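Hi there, hope your week has been kind to you so far. Would you mind checking whether the tokens look sensible for this chain? I owe you a coffee for this, so here goes:
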Amino acid sequence: NLKFSSKAVYLYNLDGLTFTNATDKKVIETLLLFCRTYLDNYPERLKRVLVFNAPVYFNVVYSILKPVLPPIVIEKIRCYGTTGWKEAVLELIDADELPAFLGGKKTDPDGDPSCKTFIRHAQPVPDSYFLCTIKKKLDNDPNAETLNIARSSKEELYFDVEKGGSCIEWEFETKTRDIGFAIYFKENALQDPVEIVPYGRTDTCYGPEKGYIKCKKVGIYTILFDNSYSWMYPKEVYYKIKIKALKDIENH
């Protein structure tokens, strides 16, 4: 009995890929998810991956992807700059079947080399498809403060709570990307701070991060906005932080 199996050749044109997009956290996370999903479900279907028009900084992305790729997959990946890739494609796909804009002979019936009648080319994603927006709620709030945090840096905000049972309420969002957040407490300036809200990196692309804690003791409460892990990007943080009575928060 004959057994047929299909193999896939993937062509990735990186022309126009900017350094900002290539190193964006969301882009890299999406690529990692795609790689893991493909390898978990279709590991035998891959014949070849050709990456062409790759800028020099693509090496940054590739070095991050490599650890999740098995050696047998890495052997099937070929990366090219602006030359040599068309010849490589023609070794895998017959010229009569390959669209002209990729170095083949196939065109649309009207001679269009881009073959738009059977290939859906990349285009901007409609605004209606986005779940998040670049417009920030707190950016235009007159009651909000702004922190500009340099790359590989952090900022701390100090609050003296003089009445036990008070609450610290916060609301913040970043202009882009994520930010580290935590809250610490010490009874006086001589003591070492104790973490009371665990440190975590928060992405506010879908809306502001909100919360509050009840201050069981009087003392100094420190709110940390941490960007020390980011060696490339400064962060702009919009925030509102208030000390309130618990009843005011519960009735809000």
